[in-house]
């Protein structure tokens, strides 16, 4: 889904698989590639997981370094609260304890020089937790962005909901683009239950 004010700026939409969809948006003089993903759950077969990461590899390799890239969605892994040896991709403000799924996320981020953007903004617990079911609180939804574009990220946080039927919380990333001389624009990228909604904020 794309905000109606941005629909005319979408120049390409590609469905790589049931778990990976990419759209290309022109914002000012920049091309932004937004990749929406849904990583296989822990209990699924290793072949399915391997195929997912191979497909995602191909998608990222097709995005020129000159273009901006944001990957967001349900990664089904825990990167943990601390850096844990991943100081080039983990900002030190995560949540909970890391697991194998989180290690896969961070290894992927290191391979492509990406940042787990959520972990670069110090937040209260309510704005770190992206999934809640009863007493279970976890962080499994993330935004990844190229490390050399970190300065474009103005904020990233989960939005608590009073609607109890929704287990995944809305995750919001604010990215600032230069659109013209003396003018900039903030594009909000919202992630909810594996779907991404690029939205013009200002």
Describe this structure in words.
This protein is mainly beta. The protein has one domain: Deoxyribonuclease I, Chain A. Helix content is 14%, strand content 40%. It contains two helices and twelve strands; from the N terminus they run βββαβαββββββββ. The protein has helices at residues 46-61, 100-111, and strands at residues 10-17, 20-27, 30-38, 68-74, 114-116, 131-133, 136-138, 141-146, 153-159, 170-180, 183-192, 195-200. The strands form three sheets. The chain has a six-stranded mixed beta sheet, with helices on one face. The two termini are 19 Å apart. 34% of the residues are buried. The model has no long low-confidence stretch (mean pLDDT 87).
Name the descriptors.
6-stranded mixed β-sheet; mainly beta; Deoxyribonuclease I, Chain A; 202 residues; 14% helix; 4-stranded antiparallel β-sheet; 40% strand
Reported by name, the CATH topology is: Deoxyribonuclease I, Chain A
Number of DSSP E strands: 12
User: How many domains?
Assistant: 1
DSSP helix count?
Answer: 2
The helicity comes to 10-25%
Describe the main β-sheet briefly.
Answer: 6 strands, mixed
Q: What distance separates the N and C termini?
A: 19 Å
